[in-house]
Target: Phosphate ABC transporter substrate-binding protein
Amino acid sequence: MRMQQVLIALALAGAGMAAQAQVAVVVNPKSAAASMTAEQVANIFLGKSNTLPSGAAAAPVDQPESAAIRETFYTKVTGKNSAQVKAAWSRLVFSGKATPPKEVASSAEVKKFVAGNPDAIGYIEKSAVDGSVKVVLSVD
Model:
């Protein structure tokens, strides 16, 4: 009986993680970018690049540090956790080399920002995608 309870708990934990793991990287529907690699997205969100593949200036928008989607995005797309990302940005800001992505309160705010800015790029839950944004990378 005890082993069965452990297996059920593990299955439920795995199901919760899978539901959290669906991330969509989105741009404005008018953007020339049709798709992007995880490396291209990571470079923008880590301050290594400030342009979209089309050559247009990138305006990245970030979720709050407390949002589960943020941890999922950075872990899966950049291979870094929140603390590592924060440390990397601290170095870039201190040296004057880059400015971190604009932070907004929620996926709804990310979507609103991206829909209203042709150079914007952000990430939201895949389930929140609608016609106001265009998906350039899906991460499961």
User: Anything to note?
Assistant: The CA atoms of residues 68 and 126 lie 13 Å apart. The domain at 21-139 is CATH 3.40.190.10 (D-Maltodextrin-Binding Protein; domain 2).
